[in-house]
Write a structure and sequence with these properties.
163 residues, two-stranded antiparallel ribbon, alpha+beta, 36% helix, globular, 13% strand
Length: 163
């Protein structure tokens, strides 16, 4: 059977895009992979509206990509932090592949704003297609560090401590 003779009703790419295929969703995932967990910190750092952020977070929690973890600061009401689940962490190769493509084709002249490195060695990481069975790095084994094109956060979008 050839590709054009096959039904696309059971397409994993399409089903994945139903969960993470919206621009703001990928930006939220970028924040989560970089340790930003709180709603207000995400909103300020990304610069998106509260309603869009709340909607995307609800969808990611419902899909099992993020989990809401309650916390409460003294004198404030209970709120949630949004943490990657194992299902969410399994998106690391997707995020690295998007970053790698963007570094090659979309980065400004100074270079990429962030580089992802292996925590243990500090070596840069990149996405590759490899045979099944070979071990790759997990999200816990990588860290984002400022790249040559990194810029300071504008004061009006500052992230609060404890993010």
């Amino acid at each position: 059977m050839e590709w054009l003779e096959m039904s696309t009703e059971n397409c994993s790419v399409q089903r994945t895009l139903d969960v993470i295929g919206e621009k703001w969703t990928m930006v939220i995932l970028r924040e989560a992979f970089n340790g930003v967990r709180r709603f207000d910190d995400m909103r300020r750092h990304i610069g998106m509206s509260e309603s869009v952020l709340a909607d995307r977070l609800r969808k990611l929690v419902a899909a099992g990509v993020l989990r809401a973890v309650p916390y409460r600061e003294e004198g404030s009401r209970a709120r949630n932090e949004y943490r990657l689940t194992e299902k969410g962490m399994d998106l690391l190769p997707v995020m690295i592949a998007l970053l790698q493509w963007g570094d090659r084709y979309c980065a400004d002249e100074r270079g990429p704003g962030v580089e992802v490195r292996e925590r243990a060695t500090g070596l840069p990481v990149h996405a590759v297609v490899r045979p099944v069975g070979e071990r790759g790095l997990t999200a816990r084994e990588t860290v984002g560090v400022p790249g040559p094109g990194a810029r300071a956060l504008r004061a009006d979008r500052e992230v609060s401590p404890g993010a």
